[in-house]
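Human:
Care to share another protein and its fold?

Assistant:
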Amino acid sequence: MNPKSAIKGRGAQRNVHNRFFELSHEMRDDFLEFCHKEGEQADKNKTLYLPVFPKTIVNKVTSPDVGMLYSMNMYQGCEHGCIYCYARNSHEFWGYSAGLDFERRILVKKDAPKLLEAQLKKKSWKAQPIVMSGNTDCYQPAEKQFKITQQCLEVFLKYKHPVAIITKNALILRDLELVKALAKDNLIVVNISITSLSETTRRILEPRTASIKKRLETVKTLSENGIPVNVMLAPIIPSINSHEILPLAKSASEHGALSIGHTLVRLNGAIGEIFSDWIKKTLPDRADKVLRQIESCHGGTLNDSRHGTRMRGEGKIAEQIHNLVKLARQKYFKDKRMPRLNGGLHEQFKDGQLKLF
């Protein structure tokens, strides 16, 4: 990657056109060269936190490919900067780019705890696990400042409602006592995403996430405190981390995880362009090979929107990946099981206190 134009600490290396906008702008090479010669910054690379005020926070998930019925997202956009993230496209609905804007324009929903409480108190609401976060990481760097996820966990505990967490950040350990209290009544499961055991790979794929060592330590700490943990080997990217499936599974099991899950990378919407630009700059020696192998898993295209196959893929490479995951489960998780979350307590606590009759 050209050091003059590289944007440090970010996954995407540019903004791409928002499909909902008629006009677009670009950062020209001659402008970048001018800034370099003049010793000026073409891009200050700052993260902005922008408050938004949605009317609801719990979303019904209709996709048949996702194993959840309801999700909630305290933040839109994610500073972790994972280059492959399927959530990038959602930033276009807010008027931003799926590229750098997704990592640097973080929309903050400060009213999320209040909105969640209103949802759980509805007479019509029947307890179903709600996943934090189905889209962007609920423990991304913004959470250290705003503590919205922490406040939402307090709401789940108050109303004895089941919740699942997906994160790749060790910041969850800040809320260990809350998570332990929820686990006592079988009200929580935690999904920790670990895509590689290599720090070099982690840094280029997921530049602002917790280190692999910290994530494995998080799995161990949670497990030792009686909190069920599933490790997500997601996404599996051919010729980048596909060779790590067995060692990843072994390490996850040794640190106390009860199960593993996986998805095959899919570069839907604008992500195909963002990922292609990134890999040609970051891993030019294998870029064409990786892109061709991804296409071979998705009917010859990077952008696979077909329900049933878009997250699993098809073809020989996808089949090899699924067989390796199956072998990993048999080898390292044969006698382990994730518990079913308890949805039977919430009705008694719907008004925030225990009912006697």
User: Anything to note?
Assistant: The first strand starts at residue 48 and ends at 51. The CA atoms of residues 144 and 171 lie 8 Å apart.
